[in-house]
Every structure is written in C-alpha cells, then in structure tokens.
Specification:
This is NAD(P)-binding protein. It comes from Zopfia rhizophila CBS 207.26. Keywords: Oxidoreductase. Pfam families: adh_short (PF00106). InterPro entries: NAD(P)-bd_dom_sf, SDR_fam, Sec_Metab_Biosynth_Oxidored. The protein is of the alpha/beta class and 340 residues long. It has a single domain (4-335), classed as Rossmann fold. The protein contains 11 helices and 7 strands. The protein has helices at 4-13, 31-43, 56-69, 85-98, 126-150, 168-173, 189-210, 233-246, 254-266, 308-314, 318-335, and strands at residues 22-26, 48-53, 74-79, 104-107, 161-165, 215-219, 294-297. Strand 2 (48-53), helix 3 and strand 3 (74-79) form a beta-alpha-beta unit. The termini are far apart. The structure holds NADP nicotinamide-adenine-dinucleotide phosphate.
Length: 340
C-alpha cells in the first residue's frame, strides 16, 4: 500500500510545478471526480479546471467552494449529457477553443444501475457508453492537447495523463465476448461490468503505445460513499446511503479517495513511456514492462500484476481488436451521423 504520508508529501510538492496546469474532470460534479478536483485545486498554483456534468446547481456551488479554497484557480463548468458521443465532441471542441494544452484528463462519469440495457439515440447502452465509449472519445478528442502538454519544454509544466476510474480487476478475471463487444445481443449486468473493465484496460494500453508522451491509468477506487446510486431514484438511493453508513469502516473516506486519486493522476512513478527513463520508483506497466505508460491501479496506489486470465485474453491481438471496434463505433456515430 502506498502510505497516506507518501501521498500527502507528493501532493503537497505539486505547488512547485508551474502555474496554469489545465485539468478536465469529466464527472467532476460529484463523488471521486469532485473529491480529486478539490485536491488538485488545493495543491496547485493558478490551475484551470473544467468540470463536466449535467447538474448546473451543484456545479455553481462547487465552483464557489473551490474558488474560495484557491482564489488563483480558474474554474469552468460545461453542462453536457456525455452519454452521447456527439456531446463529447462538442465538449472537446469547446475546450480546444479555450486551451492550448491539457495536463490531466480525469474520467469518472458513470453510475450504478440494476436495470437492463438502456439504449441512447446513438444505439449504445447508456452506462456502458459513460464507462467506456465516451471516455475513449474524450481521450481521442483531447489527445492533441495532451500531446501539447507532454511537449512543453519546461519539465515543471509537462504533466500529461489520462485517468479512467472504474475497475481494472474484472478484466483480469473474465474474458470479453469479442463477437459482441458493444453487448448489443448479449447484454447483462455482469457482461457490461466485464466489458467496461477489460475494454478500458486494453484500450488504455493501445493509447499508451500510440501516445508515448502521455501516461494512462485505469484506477479502482474500492468502495467510496458517493452519489453513485442517484439515478436509481429515492428508494434505492436511500438504501445505498444507509448501507454506506453501516459499511463505513470498510469504505475509503471520500477525502482520502481524492488524495489517492490525485497521486494516481500526478505521481512521476506512473510515467509516460517516452519519459520513463531515470524516474525514481518507476512502476511496472500493465503489460508487465516497467514504465510502459499504461498502469492499472488498485485503490491503495499499488499496480496490479498480470493474471493467467489476462495472459489468455491478450492473445490474438485483443487490444488491437478492441480499439478497431471502438473506432468503428466512433466512425458510425460521429462521422457518419448514424447509430451503432
Ligand atoms: N463509488 C464507488 O464505490 C465506486 C466503486 C467502483 C467503481 N466506481 C466507479 O467510479 C466512477 C465514479 O463514481 P462516483 O462514485 O464518483 O460516482 P458519482 O458520485 O455518482 O459521480 C458520477 C459523476 O458522473 C457524472 N455523470 C453521470 N452521468 C452523466 C451523464 N450522462 N453526462 C455527464 N455526466 C454524468 C455526474 O454528474 P451529473 O450528476 O452532474 O451529471 C457525476 O459528476 C463511476 O464510473 C463508478 O462506476 C465507483
């Protein structure tokens, strides 16, 4: 376990970085995204923060709170339902018009549901879209800005990282159905969880190969009491809140979760491939190679090791197949304006 002392010492050191780091929190209006944004604002100089979500009232309250925490910060809210990939493109366009670089893309938008497949007008399951397709579309759309951050000649300003918070474990235990990656025909809650996990795992590895100046992290938060069940209505949300109280000793406190995720989002040990050489405490990447630029993290900051199941899944170019499928989905929906 990476100790909280190590994490706090590192996070406090971010004050020595150049002012004006740009961070985009997709899902920054609640839970782990908000808690990490709060730590980013607390620990950096004059950051530019973008919060993406749907809740304008909550966003306005958060912007006031974060501005009070660090009056040098510039805070913006972009209201958008990003379960639609076309909305993701609009958000990316707006950020590109305002910024020339992005140092951190932090992806947490999602929710917990016991409902079955719920198709968006673009033909994807809503939750699956939030947990995978929309996240990858953000990475693709903002990759020129992440590359611009990576290419900054000032080492105090060249942080370039994308973090997806979901669950890398499931992908190391279960194999996806390559015949139906979008789960059009074989949707179940278990399949959706498995595909979300393994597709984040392997697509981020592909991203690390394609963008060696940026590092990619898939992080498991463990249990954290957040608004995750809000979409389920007042009854189930109430049950979740009561259960969270009972389970409190076993949950990661929300403030600690933010501190730990800020570490995952900024610590040099999770270096991009092109900048790994000479880094102290450099971690093993998800492919087992030190400093390969893609890292799967447990809640405590430790990297996950390889599993037998994952070795099997990797055979036959699994990562390439997943990325080709993802590009096909993007082409049909975003370029041809159709449904998948
Ligand atoms: N909390 C846990 O114990 C836990 C455990 C394992 C994995 N996770 C995963 O971690 C991630 C973050 O969870 P959390 O606990 O921080 O959840 P949360 O408190 O419910 O926050 C989710 C965020 O996603 C945004 N969001 C949801 N649907 C959206 C949409 N259609 N368009 C735009 N934004 C949307 C919400 O913003 P608006 O309400 O403003 O739209 C909110 O900011 C999720 O993917 C979750 O599955 C959580």
């Amino acid at each position: 376990m990476v100790s909280l002392t190590t994490i706090r010492t590192h996070n406090a050191s971010l004050k020595t970085l150049s002012p004006g780091l740009v961070a985009v929190f997709v899902g920054g209006t609640s839970g782990i995204g908000l808690s990490t944004a709060r730590e980013f604002v607390r620990n950096t100089n004059s950051p530019h923060i973008y919060l993406i979500g749907r809740n304008q009232t909550e966003a306005s309250r958060i912007i006031d709170e974060l501005h009070e925490l660090n009056p040098s910060s510039q805070l913006s809210f972009i209201k958008s339902d990003i379960s639609l990939l076309k909305s993701v493109d609009e958000v990316c366009k707006e950020i590109k018009e305002k910024e020339s670089k992005v140092n951190l893309l932090f992806l947490t938008a999602g929710y917990l549901t016991f409902k079955g497949r719920d198709e968006t007008t673009e033909g994807l399951d809503r939750k699956f879209s939030l947990h995978y397709y929309a996240r990858m579309r953000f990475i693709q759309g903002l990759s020129p800005l992440l590359a611009a951050a990576a290419n900054d000649s000032n080492p105090s300003a060249n942080l370039s990282r994308a973090v997806s918070v979901l669950d890398p474990h499931l992908g190391t235990r279960w194999t996806p159905n390559f015949e139906d990656l979008s789960l059009k025909r074989t949707f179940s809650l278990k399949n959706c969880a498995t595909h979300g996990s393994v597709m984040n795992n392997l697509a981020l590895e592909e991203m690390a190969k394609a963008h060696p100046g940026t590092s990619f992290v898939h992080a498991y938060p463990s249990g954290v009491a957040t608004g995750l069940m809000r979409a389920q209505g007042p009854v189930l949300n109430g049950v979740w809140k009561a259960a969270s109280l009972l389970m409190k000793p076993f949950l990661v406190p929300i403030g600690e979760s933010g501190e730990r995720h800020l570490f995952a989002a900024t610590a040099p040990r999770f270096a991009p491939k092109s900048k790994a050489e000479g880094v102290q405490d450099l971690e093993k990447g998800s492919d087992g190679v030190k400093g390969s630029g893609s890292y799967w993290l447990n809640w405590d900051g430790e990297v996950l090791g390889e599993s037998k199941k994952m070795v099997d899944t990797r055979t036959d170019d699994a990562g390439k197949k997943i990325w080709e499928h993802t590009e096909e989905v993007f082409r049909k929906i975003c370029e041809e304006g159709g449904r998948y």
